Amino acid sequence: MITILMHHNAYARMARDLAARMDRVRVVTMDREGLFHLQPGGEPVETPAPDVVYGSLDAWFQPKARAFIEGAMAAPRLRWFQSSSAGLDMPIFQQFGAKAEIFTSCHVQSEAMAEWALWQGLDFFRGGPRHRAQQARREWGRFDTREICNSNWLIIGFGSIGAAVGGRVRALGGRVTGVRRSGGTAPEADAIHAEVRPQDLASADVVLVCLPHSPQTAGMADAAFFAGMAEGALFLNLGRGTLVNEADLIAGLDRGKPAFAALDVTLIEPLPADSPLWSHPKVAITPHDSAHTPGTYRRTDALLLANLDRYLAGEPLANVQPKSRFA
Amino acid sequence: MITILMHHNAYARMARDLAARMDRVRVVTMDREGLFHLQPGGEPVETPAPDVVYGSLDAWFQPKARAFIEGAMAAPRLRWFQSSSAGLDMPIFQQFGAKAEIFTSCHVQSEAMAEWALWQGLDFFRGGPRHRAQQARREWGRFDTREICNSNWLIIGFGSIGAAVGGRVRALGGRVTGVRRSGGTAPEADAIHAEVRPQDLASADVVLVCLPHSPQTAGMADAAFFAGMAEGALFLNLGRGTLVNEADLIAGLDRGKPAFAALDVTLIEPLPADSPLWSHPKVAITPHDSAHTPGTYRRTDALLLANLDRYLAGEPLANVQPKSRFA
User: Fold this and answer.
1) Max CA-CA distance within chain B?
2) In angstroms, what is the C-alpha Rg of chain A?
3) Residue B112 sits at the chain A interface (C-beta within 8 Å)
4) Burial class (CB in 10 A: 0-12, 13-18, 19+), A117
5) Which tens digits make up the pLDDT trace of B78-94?
6) Which of B172, B175, B188, B236 to substitute to test the interface with A, most A CBs within 10 Å?
7) Could you give phi then psi for residue A189, rounded to 5 degrees?
8) Confidence (pTM)
9) What is the pLDDT of residues A198-224, one digit of tens each?
10) Could you give the ipTM of this predicted complex?
């Protein structure tokens, strides 16, 4: 019998699936008030003492996130932590990665994030801001817009997010150049290179960065990078705010390169109220919620259940991250 | 030797292609001032007297559209009119269809229009208005949004536009039900029905109408139609403004069905400045420009050239419309 700790919302979605495993799994949930309960039934539990923690998105983005983390970190022996994220660099993931015997990541957020990239690409190509400004003025003014079809996308960082975007762009008739250190080929890209080539940067209609944070990637989108982009191109960030030098981005936007930027991540999150990004007419900000869809919850739950069955059967789990990745 | 009349912009795009056919084709262009010229060279021409008219989008959406129409309609014998549109109901198309010996339509606008539908679908699913309102308030507020993946689309009118939308939605993981009188099956839809079934209307996350105008389709989207939609669903119109009872649409939006409407066409175009649609918080208006992309120009030009070669070879043209469709 193992004890798994999860947020009440995750339990509510998976109650039937978990009921079928109740002979081997004890489920402890945390409710909206930060209190712990044994499920099913809801008997109060003082100390969750989990063997396994399911860190679904519900657990983090709510007022009692700290209670969940403390309950999880107080486990005498944490055997396995299932993350809902691909990233390992956030402090809580580093903390759980150091404590848990097994840390498994999750790459399904890329599906929802890829639709964010299409959304931002289409809103830019279709003249979303100009159409909305015209509507606000009650002005019927036709103008030419652009298509994803035949557009060039440079995707820097070609892991699960980059591939999810690339596959969709190609399905819509766009051309995709991916960048990843290992090079090679991928069905979701027309070409893959091991580094950002100036000619690819200069011919891209859309440049998407979706690299993880590291000392090597920090500040990679700087003045020289933006100056190397094409006229009229869009810059997207689905990776980490640290990838972008925000002062250089604003200076670039004011010179027209990039023509527009859509950012789901910023250097400081939440983005401070006095940041000039908020009100820049060529910037769209979303609050790091590109992955927050019911589809993401459903896909993440499915991974947890599949990994749970592997765990119970003594089989190797999917997406195990080596201990060396946690400081 | 035949004389073809086209707008100067169309000639500029196709000058090289047309040069290769100059032994059999005399090209007359109309410039921005509404004056006619023989090409290449630009020698002024008093009366274009065309055998063939290329009605590209450039010809209509410019201040001298009337001069183009008059020059074209003054032809002693108009052998062939190549339209840039799929629709036949606009007055100028009826006029050219009645005059020309052969009228050929064009269905390539559907490609650009399909991306409009994805754009509007994503902006709705992704909470575009709410995200933009938050940004205007400098507020970092995560919220859950939706995906095209696993969404249900009901596409009423499954001709070239419907199929172009359906194929893209399916490529992104959505489910497509198409409606067309002839029924049957289509690779761009999961199911096709001969009429709008209440259960399909009630389970669609997005309802797109892209029917032509006719006495049968006029006002089909009325109070009963909107009442039959699902909570939280989006209504899109890429067909004709006459399909929609606009008073019923506004009443429906105020009751929450549909949850939002995006319209590229309106009953009266340009939409009058006093229309309540302009300022309705649940309405996005684009000025009938969903097809206006460089891709559309390029694809329409390619059809003109292919049909021109067929014409010169005495072969049947593509997309010939029967005389009976013009009053």
Assistant:
1) 67
2) 22
3) yes
4) buried
5) 999 999 998 888 889 99
6) B172
7) -135, 150
8) 0.94
9) 999 999 999 999 999 999 999 999 999
10) 0.93
